[in-house]
Amino acid sequence: MFQRLAEQHRQFVQDLVMNLQALAIVLENRGYLASCYTCGGQMNSASFMVSLGENHLIRFLVSDYGITWTEMRDDRELMKLEGAEAISQLQELANLVKNQIQPSQKPNELRQEDLSLNKAI
Fold it and tell me: Is the pLDDT of residue 101 over 90?
């Protein structure tokens, strides 16, 4: 039983890392500064970061040891969540990306590329 649970956990972490990589690409395409770094080829950990504007940073860490979401503004920690709460907050960020335009654009300047990316998420 425990071996099966350990394998399911490894698969969960790998799936989460792949989704973080995809989210970083979409955010970069939308004009945000975003990155997702992994250690090694096994995809058992990742560090995801995105800048949402002036001095507003989100950091999401995932590994076999845990999952954390940290939101900072002006180098001060605003919020730190772990586990399921951190993943829920990540989903909120993904939902915002689905419905939001590039940060440098005005609301009436939505481009066709943005519409096609919105469908792909």
Answer: no
Query: Which pTM value belongs to this model?
Result: 0.77
Task: Look up residue 36 and give its two tokens.
Answer: 């997702």
Q: What is the average pLDDT across 5-20?
A: 93
User: Which amino acid belongs to residue 93?
Assistant: L
79 close to 71: Cβ distance less than 8 angstroms: yes
- Three-state secondary structure call for residue 108: helix
For residue 70, report the phi and psi dihedrals to the nearest 5 degrees. -130, 130
Q: Among 39, 17, 44, 30, which Cα is nearest to 100's? A: 30
Q: In what order do the strands lie in the sheet with 33-38?
A: 33-38, 46-53, 56-63, 66-73, 76-82
